[in-house]
Amino acid sequence: MSKEAGTTVQEQPDEKVTDDFALPGVPDAFQRLWTPHRMAYVKGGQGQFDDKDACPFCAAPGRPDEDSLIVHRGVHAYVVLNLFPYNPGHLLICPYRHVPDYTDITTEETLEFAELTQTAMRVLRKVANPAGFNLGMNQGTAGGAGVAAHLHQHVVPRWGGDGNFFPIIAQTKAITQTLAEVREQVADAWPAG
Ligand SMILES: [Zn+2]
After folding, report:
1. Where is this region: Disordered (predicted)?
2. Containing domain of residue 114, as a range?
């Protein structure tokens, strides 16, 4: 009986079993990453940011760093704390120009955009010792951008296990009240020049 079973089709490898990690992409990390900060903006509707004067990323550089939560000002782009962080130290790299798409920025802007992203990672490693990062740009409202009209790159520090509780406490005052403190810490650690 067992000899017979050994020759049946049941003994062939089950090709219907698929390992998720054999495919490109990580099943759930991005869903957890983008939702909280996105919702804070999305509540107000997308239309309000079509007007450049109402754009939070155009308005921020016009205010003092402490008020706008800016940690560094470059030539073509600046770095600001996300007002609605997924994790403490969640930074955004923004060109000064009000352009929506990654293909809209010039070579010079792209270079500084990339350099500021690298420096942001180095600074966050220095001050907060994260175990990893999520970097990314949501392009268009369909791509999940909260402020689709003004390009911005997310730099999110990650620590092991943070996904278990930060989505909950990120909505509380406790995180908001430390934003000024986090801004100062990151700004102080940002290399001069
Ligand atoms: Zn803008």
Report:
1. 1-20
2. 57-193
